[in-house]
Amino acid sequence: MSTAPIRVVVWGENRHEQVEPSVAERYPDGMHGAIAKGVGEWLGDKAAITTHTLDEPEHGLTSDVLDETDVLVWWGHAAHGEVADEVVERVHRHVLAGMGLVVLHSGHWSKIFTKLMGTTCTLRWRSEHDRELVWTVNPQHPIARGIPNPIVIPEQEMYGEYFDVPTPDELIFISGFTGGEVFRSGMTYRRGFGRIFYFSPGDQDFPVYHHPDVNHVIANGIEWARPDRERETPTLLRYDTDDFFNGQGYRGAFER
């Protein structure tokens, strides 16, 4: 694995902060800014972190930006539909080619996450100042390294089952709430050559991204999702008999 800093982009919708004074007060540098600062305190010089937001040209996720991104962290909620389809396709291609993706909280309903999952990604929810306990169910996983069990979040939006996502490759955290609900709150997937970590704690109405343990989990997720190979899109190649190494380009059904 490379010892160079992990090139991280924290992407935030940055809409609640513009129209809701309480959110702007809670997150004066934007939620994306709070996430970037929080994970930066854990990663230190192991990461080079930048931020981009929805209202930038191409949402800040140009080809040049993604070419230089090892891990993309995604937070969105109120404006999923405003994310341009061509940008979603671009991010999707980069994930399949090996870029890491960390999806947070309401990002479960983002275009990019639903595209990668192939399901509705719907769930139960309630925003009533619930206490959340985040329990570690896979303590051997690197994302759980150094994380207290449980993480206690005094105020949070409730997310509950059924969560319509594919069976995860690895289930790391399960949350419980004051109403008795449970939720698969931390899980991993692999799509193509890319690694994906979904982590649910974090809402604009509560100061969850000022919680050091939450930021520690996200930082661990970034380290885990970092690519461990040169970026390469999986391709369909034709091989002659006994030629194990020199595949020939093939125009498949999707290109006809």
TrEMBL record:
InterPro entries: Class_I_gatase-like (IPR029062), ThuA-like (IPR029010), Trehalose_catabolism_ThuA_prok (IPR009381). Coiled coil: none annotated. Transmembrane segments: none annotated. It holds the Pfam family ThuA. Residues 7-225 form the ThuA-like domain. Signal peptide: none annotated. This is Trehalose utilization protein ThuA. It comes from Glycomyces terrestris.
